[in-house]
């Protein structure tokens, strides 16, 4: 079971738990024998009326990777696009790791990538360190970015494509009273000057994309439901140059109930400093205690460092109950697209924003027709088919290996296996199915069982102490 879980892109298929509202035409996905089955309902949007005198208008709330990618795609597709972001210099407590495929898929310039990580250390509760990355090819790496740099770049590119970027705070959404009536987006506009007053503004649009993060106001406005979330805490620490050399192309991940009962601690390299952080779902009030423990575990390597920035932010643990209502869709963290176990969210945010925008462009014939809920459901169907299995598999991994320190020791032990490293990195870097070797899969299954048996025996011995 766990050998399959470690290869999270092996063709597993399962629809999301979201409630789908029946429409006229029904498309049924294939039914796996071993998984829960749910019907998707899709209606072609070509019956929607043509728009005269203008093109389709869409507002995007939130200017992170999801919002920036959506805005660029819409603008290039002929849609009148407005992106509203409250803080244009915002920096999130995000590890900043992006897979190699994102660099190519989103045509990212190499100068926004601070570091190319080719080595990783997974460090167990007992401080056993396992080197990960031995299977990487010479051209392969994990990119490390600063969110304030990446987000600004994607917004600037959207602006160059024709989107209007507004520095403002979204406050309220008035819903239409008729089928094709506009949504009214209310926001407070900023002029960027310190001490300036906020101007109350409003715009009318045909559709709204909520890309405004885990505390999404757009999600609340459509009653999208709540989800469990983690709190991430991160300190950016400027360390001496000789110590920074150690982290030149190296990232560290610490596991143990001292650094987090259900996540991990990290030290990731940035341009001229390191990001040291941790996260938790179950013990949020203790986050500073876990952060201190993470710093203590890495203390010799960051000795002499100076904290230059402190950041905290919620991170969703699973998709919201509803990600689409009428002509309002959620993407990125607002939708809950952060993977358990790894906490990865940047790529999935940008990808979901682009996929949502593509569905709008296609369904409305480049903005010439009115958008309908059915057009946006195409985005959800494609997303769930492509990525839902990944979220379920990583959920299983977290429950199996993060439940106790002995289980974490077993997890780190497994990470030493080169086959595990190859399958994991290939899946992470390229976000696609990686065929495995049946014999190696069998060996991995045996080793996994052995690691878990040893972990269970250790747990019982520790319980006697």
Automatic annotation (TrEMBL):
EC id: 1.3.1.83
GO molecular function: geranylgeranyl diphosphate reductase activity; geranylgeranyl reductase activity
Catalyzed reactions per annotation: phytyl diphosphate + 3 NADP(+) = geranylgeranyl diphosphate + 3 NADPH + 3 H(+)
Pathway in which this enzyme or protein is active: Cofactor biosynthesis; tocopherol biosynthesis; Porphyrin-containing compound metabolism; chlorophyll biosynthesis
InterPro entries documented for this protein: BchP_ChlP_pln/prok, FAD/NAD-bd_sf, FAD/NAD-binding_dom, Geranylgeranyl_Rdtase_fam, Geranylgeranyl_Rdtase_pln/cyn, Geranylgeranyl_reductase
A Gene Ontology BP annotation from the UniProt entry: photosynthesis
Top-level taxonomic group: Eukaryota
GO CC aspect terms: chloroplast thylakoid membrane
Record-annotated FAD/NAD(P)-binding domain positions: 57-219
Pfam families: Pyr_redox_2 (PF07992)
Keywords: Chlorophyll biosynthesis, NADP, Oxidoreductase, Photosynthesis
Its biological purpose: Catalyzes the reduction of geranylgeranyl diphosphate to phytyl diphosphate, providing phytol for both tocopherol and chlorophyll synthesis.
Family: Belongs to the geranylgeranyl reductase family. ChlP subfamily.
Stored PANTHER family: GERANYLGERANYL DIPHOSPHATE REDUCTASE, GERANYLGERANYL DIPHOSPHATE REDUCTASE, CHLOROPLASTIC
Protein name: Geranylgeranyl diphosphate reductase, chloroplastic
Species for this entry: Tagetes erecta (African marigold)
